[in-house]
Amino acid sequence: MTKNIHADKYVSKISDLSNLISKIVISRGNPFAKLMIIGEAPGAKEEELGKPFVGRSGKLLDQLLQNAGIDISLDVYFCNVVKCRPPKNRRPTKIEIQENLPWLYQQIKLVNPEIIVLVGKTALEAILKNKSTISILRGKWINWNGRLVMPIFHPAYLLRNQSKEEGAPMSLTKSDILKIKEKMDTLK
Ligand code: URA
Fold first, then answer.
1. How far apart are the C-alpha atoms of 90 and 101, rounded to whole Å?
2. pLDDT of residue 87
């Protein structure tokens, strides 16, 4: 596998995952967006294309955002807590998360979003340091360092739970995303 020397140099400062990967995945979308979406870590497709949320989960997330009237290339900046793909798509370890956090904080500072959406448990715990579950916190606005933060279910979870019934994860997420869109409209 050919490695990108510059990316490697950068990655080696991020985490030991750098020894195992060929690419780092930083962001997708508009760096001037008011809305930042933070996921867990890149998967295989994200690593291949060098962009977050471009695999099956990402496509579902894009669709849900677009259905709510959010322009994904203009209104959103996508990134992850961990910038390198953990082997076999395992969850990142606590150490990997700790090592990557300074880079995420730097991204938040530079993009300066008014709204941050935490996609799934890893992002929730990494940012809010909160052990409460996504089921409890999803859809709720939380003030974090002067920014509005909302956790939502991870789209990978939605792909495994596709019931369309009211009260099921998919319909809850649709209403959470509508809430986010409403908030974005009040900020314009
Ligand atoms: N899941 C994530 O959390 N992030 C991605 O970029 C892709 C899938």
1. 18
2. 87
Domain of 139 in residue numbering reads as: 2-187
**The CATH number of the domain where 53 resides is what?**
3.40.470.10
27: left (phi over 0), alpha (psi -120 to 50) or beta: beta
- Ligand 1 pocket test: pick from 59, 80, 83 the residue with the most ligand atoms within 8 Å of its Cβ: 80
Q: What is the pTM of this model?
A: 0.89
Q: How many structural domains are present in the chain?
A: 1
Residue 152's φ and ψ, nearest 5 degrees, are -135, 165
Q: Which residue is associated with the tokens 């870590």?
A: 41
Q: What is the CA(42)–ligand 1 centre distance, in A? A: 5
Q: Which two tokens stand for residue 132?
A: 């409460």
* β-sheet bridge partners, residue 151: 118
User: 113 near 35, Cβ under 8 Å?
Assistant: yes
**Closest Cα to atom 7 of ligand 1:** 53
Sign of the Cα pseudo-torsion (150, 124, 89, 110, in order) = positive
Residues 6 or more apart whose CB falls under 8 angstroms from that of 145 comprise none
pLDDT tens digits along 57-102: 999 999 999 999 999 999 999 999 999 999 888 999 999 999 999 9
The pLDDT assigned to 169 comes to 98
- The kind and range of the H/E element at 144 are strand 142-144
- What distance in Å separates the CA atoms of residue 116 and residue 54, rounded to the nearest whole number? 19
